[in-house]
Amino acid sequence: MEEIINNNNNNNNKRKVGRPKGTTGIPRRSNSATKAKIQARKELANKERDIKKLERKLTKKRSNLKDKKSVLEKVELAIDPKNQEQTIKNTVMTNGDFEKAPKKVRDFIKENKESIVFKPNDGPQTDFLAASEQDVLYGGAAGGGKSYAMLVDPLRFMHRPTHRALLLRRSMPELRELIDKSRELYTKAFPGAKFREVEKLWKFPSGATLEFGYLDRDADVYRYQGQSYSWIGIDELTQYPTEFPLQYLQSRLRTTDSEIKTYIRCTANPGGVGGHWVKKRYLDLAPPNESFEGSDGLTRKFIPARLEDNPYLSEDGRYEKMLESLPPTQRKQLLEGNWNVSEGAAFTEFDSEIHVIPPFNIPHHWMRVKGVDYGYAAESACLWATIDPDDDTLIIYRELYKKGLTGEDLSNMIIEFEKDDRRSIQGVLDNSAWNRTGAGGPTVGETLVRAGHKLRPADKNRIQGKIQVHERLKQDKTTGRPRMQFFNTCVNIIRELQSIPIDLNKPEDVDTKASDHAYDALRYLIMSRPQKPSAYNEMREIKRFAPSDPTFGY
């Protein structure tokens, strides 16, 4: 008994160690509950992690399943699995479709290569057919396989009965060439497809249609008024002088079939009467092969074509030799795929490689001048230039280019552009800006001068002005540097010098119907005879400028 009592005392002593008198402490079972909670949370976190992994796998599997279903639908295996062989033989597939197809389908195609109606060339032709953008231009060098690509692209939805496609050329003879090529492809790819000669229309077994048409002039687009198409293609887009036909047809692009995406597809060689606006729409806003969104909300891409991408024409070299024999401008366009030269261009000596330079910090002591061409319905253009005192090179470093400006609007914008300059920059303004039209109030020229702008009427001699532009574009024989260069940020004057054509009725001048507002501002600027400053002129510049006559500036 004594032994038992002593043991109890020992146990009591142990319980009292480290515990203040009068406290009960934390029961041991509480620690166990905390551990259980922590463990439960860990298990819950692990389960949530496992669920997320499964969800990702499920999403990936669903995506793969969707791709396979799309391919299977394209080859019509889901429609008629009993007739797989015949279906596969007569289906046009892209390389991307082939890679996504089930192994059974891929094996069959490999064993029956003679059944393949069309296989795109590696490179741009495949990229064009695989492009997901809504509006794509496939253009550049001649012989790149553009026409065949245009015939194949609308076939992507020919298994859908609601699919309606429209393919256009400029003239009927050119259209006939496309029709003849389509006869080689379509009857093999789609047995049962019928061509209606009178309507120039293909009717496919599913009920889908492809219509051939031509647009000889802008008004021809109204033939398609009230129509709707899920695919519209224009072959040789640069043959159209304006963007209007494409813009109008864009409004005809719609479908009620949720399984069909709408597309615009175009091909073109550089140059032609519409080369300037095509370049502006597809090339100026993003590098080649890079997707971007246009101001109309359509996703857009330019895919350059090269002769070497077409092995059927490039291997023996004969076609290349023929292109090499062309005149310089046509050779650059059709062989090199150069979009910076235009047929009939007024300034063929302009070369972006030597005339366009990256911006740099202009020294404060360099002389600065500007030329202004005013327009309200058309664009107002203002160019700022500086002169390199080492060799008298004129450098265009800034531009303003905007329509719908009043005299006050133009004045405020010029002030904003010059806010970081030491003083208002002197220059010349189109003398018509001082003309009165019978309305009261100051003229545009008076408005600008009264706002403090140092402007005088420009010398508008068109012929001499053009000659001086040519002189400035020439390269120095010793240094190779031209007498005029442009910052690459001055995109509008660069575009106009690349594309503005000669007036066919007056070859010594440019075509005034073309976009020439930045060119006019440049011409005024050069005709003001800017020179690197002398010591005398620098002393004069120190004096405060005050127009002697507010009507004519200084």
Descriptive notes:
With 554 residues, this protein is an alpha/beta fold. The chain folds into three domains: 74-115, no CATH class; 124-334, 3-Layer(aba) Sandwich (Rossmann fold), CATH 3.40.50; 352-542, Nucleotidyltransferase, domain 5 (2-Layer Sandwich). It has 20 helices and 18 strands. It has helices spanning 2-16, 28-74, 84-89, 95-100, 103-111, 124-130, 146-152, 172-189, 244-250, 275-282, 311-314, 318-324, 328-334, 352-355, 407-417, 444-450, 462-473, 491-499, 517-527, 535-542, and strands spanning 135-140, 164-169, 194-196, 201-203, 209-214, 231-234, 263-268, 292-293, 299-305, 356-357, 368-373, 379-388, 393-403, 427-429, 455-457, 484-487, 502-503, 506-510. The strands form three sheets. A nine-stranded mixed beta sheet has the order 3-4-5-2-6-7-1-9-8, with helices on both faces. Strand 14, helix 16 and strand 15 (455-457) form a beta-alpha-beta unit.
